[in-house]
Design a protein that fits this description.
With about 400 residues, this protein is an alpha/beta fold. It is built from 14 helices and 8 strands.
Length: about 400
């Protein structure tokens, strides 16, 4: 942990949650003074009927909503810029992000372009931060339990030309005004998506708990997120209609999102975000597959914290040394990854020939800076080799 650095945590988002919380969507929108919101979502949710549920609530509450249902996974620059132009053409005065991380990130990014002009490529995170003003009023409604984007201060956007994902945000200016969390919206999630998004939430918690710039608040929410994942993710995966498990996983995702603060994660996200720019694969599954190998590499840097992770995940660490307990954390995550049937690197279309490129990209990602163990190109090569090895043999 970096003790001498001046740190802060600011949360601009009101967090509201409950079974059936979607019925309050119109009231929350109107309370923000919004009369004509742009609802940002994807075709999958349209076909599943969830978008109609949201539209019925909004129209029943006399909200003049405009639909933008063109979001795709790993949203590219052109999609965000198209959404911002559509917002202006439609005379909108606020936003609703409705969906998984891609829809919520797209909504936040549209807000940045609407407020500041230009293209979202102009707002890649940098110091000084290029985002200087608050985005329009935004209600974020997650339909998965993973990214925590409803409360994060980040949006992740894909640049197809550079074949990279880049971060936008790191400031309260980009945060949603309201996070409206209805765990019932996640009940119909297929098991593979439940697994991948849940592991993404766990990765947020573990990486932000062990990063060099962790704070007391982020430590606290990270640990509870880990406990919820350890207790409920397997249940949500096995019993998709278990409402208690869905509720606790929705809370785990939200807490994992809060763990970010204005900072970022570590090597697992440096790897998954950069590799996701090379191949268009689901972020959650890729992060999940990399988390175990990254922890195996990292635990020597923060053994006390890794021992606490083991405890949070339900491991019995009584009578163990700190080092033995830290290793238990790594073993627990490997076991969870296999129990949830997370696809291997090979299953996702990567080959070992990709390792030099993937390692080079990860080493350049700014999330490398906070990793609990020093990591460079050679370290990333080692982690990637381990990820492929686990994919071939199991652990």
């Amino acid at each position: 942990m970096t003790l001498e650095t001046y740190r802060a945590y600011q949360l601009p988002t009101a967090i509201k949650h409950g079974l059936g919380a979607l019925k309050h969507l119109a009231d929350e929108v109107k309370a923000l003074g919004v009369k004509r919101p742009l609802l940002v979502t994807d075709q999958g949710l349209v076909k599943a009927g969830l978008v109609d549920e949201a539209l019925n609530v909004l129209r029943g509450g006399n909200v003049d909503v405009v639909l933008f249902d063109r979001v795709i996974p790993n949203p590219p620059i052109a999609l965000v810029d198209e959404g911002a132009a559509f917002y202006k053409e439609s005379g909108c005065d606020g936003l609703i992000g409705f969906g998984g991380g891609s829809s919520l990130d797209t909504a936040k990014a549209i807000g940045v372009v609407v407020t500041h002009g230009g293209s979202i490529r102009d707002y890649e995170w940098a110091d000084p931060n290029p985002i200087t003003r608050r985005i329009p009023p935004l209600v974020a409604v997650p339909t998965t339990a993973g990214t925590g984007s409803e409360v994060t201060l980040w949006a992740v956007i894909t640049d197809p030309e550079r074949k990279v994902k880049f971060n936008v945000g790191g400031t309260p200016h980009i945060g949603a005004h309201v996070a409206l969390i209805d765990p019932l919206l996640t009940v119909g999630l297929p098991a593979p998506i439940t697994a991948a998004t849940g592991m993404d939430a766990l990765a947020h918690a573990i990486e932000c708990y062990t990063m060099a710039y962790a704070q007391a608040f982020t430590d606290a929410v990270s640990l509870l997120a880990m406990e919820y994942v350890g207790q409920y993710l397997r249940i949500a995966f096995a019993q998709g209609h278990n409402v208690e498990a869905r509720y606790k996983m929705s809370m785990a995702a939200m807490l994992g999102g809060l763990a970010y603060g204005t900072e970022s994660a570590g090597a697992a996200h440096a790897m998954s975000q950069t590799a996701g720019g090379v191949r268009d694969v689901p972020h959650g599954a890729l992060t999940a597959r990399l988390l175990g190998p990254v922890m195996e590499y990292n635990y020597m840097g923060e053994p006390q914290k890794f021992a606490r992770i083991a405890q949070a995940l339900g491991e019995d660490i009584r009578g163990l040394s700190v080092w033995q307990a830290a290793e238990k954390a790594v073993e627990a995550v490997y076991r969870l990854t296999e129990d949830l049937e997370i696809p291997t690197m090979q299953d996702m279309g990567f080959t070992e020939d990709d390792i030099p490129l993937l390692a080079e990209l990860a080493a350049k990602d700014p999330q490398t800076i906070g990793n609990p163990r020093d990591v460079d190109y050679h370290g990333y090569v080692k982690i990637y080799k381990r990820a492929f090895e686990v994919g071939k043999k199991g652990r």
